[in-house]
Amino acid sequence: MVTLEGTIYAPPDQLEATQTALAEHIALTRAESGCLSFEVLPNPDNPLAFQVKEAFIDAEAFAVHQARTGASYWGKLTRGFEREYQTHGLDQPVSLDESFMHLALKLADRAAETGEVPVGAVLIRDEQVIGEGYNQPISGLDPTAHAEIVALRQAALSRGNYRLPASTLYVTIEPCLMCVGALIHARVDHVVFGAREPKTGALLSHPCLDAYPSNHRFKVTSGVLGEVCGQRMSRFFAAKR
Fold first, then answer.
1. How far apart are CA 199 and CA 135, in angstroms?
2. Are 86 and 7 within 8 A, CB to CB?
3. Arithmetic mean of pLDDT, 172-199
4. Catalytic residues
């Protein structure tokens, strides 16, 4: 993952144009396939300063973004602006876990677009996607239609079996108790999630596996692109307030 953080300063005579162009710049960047997160926020202490925080899946995606931005109206407008940026991760290869979590994040974005809580999930076997889903209980009129359940249903249908051994579920947010139960019944081998869910997470936030009398246990990995996954939730609920 490549991250960039810092500040860009608009000249006083370009402030209005900068504010006008910013919304389109943010929307276009977030729509890029390799973008994990992108925020440009006004600095409350300096009206001419904007705080930038962005993350891309790998160096190639970051380079594509830089090229597109440079040729865009935003790039031309801000070419001479003062910047204080720090970039990290350009020399680090993307991990397999991050690649699959990126797919889950894209599904989370689809949920947010329909007004659903932004959670996405993909089920993997032999490094291939066998099921995917995003939150849709409101649109589907189905209280069980969490991202994990939708992905399990799709995988079970595609494989013709309600048991899904040797599979790994990637989900952006820590699963709830209902989804943990479904994962046990499906015999999923490994669950990888991004951000913890302090209120309803049933793996680490409120552990239930040790107390559940089941003959199946799965491995748990947390924190993969956790900050990015958490930002999706924070941004969604901030917009609702």
1. 17
2. no
3. 96
4. 148
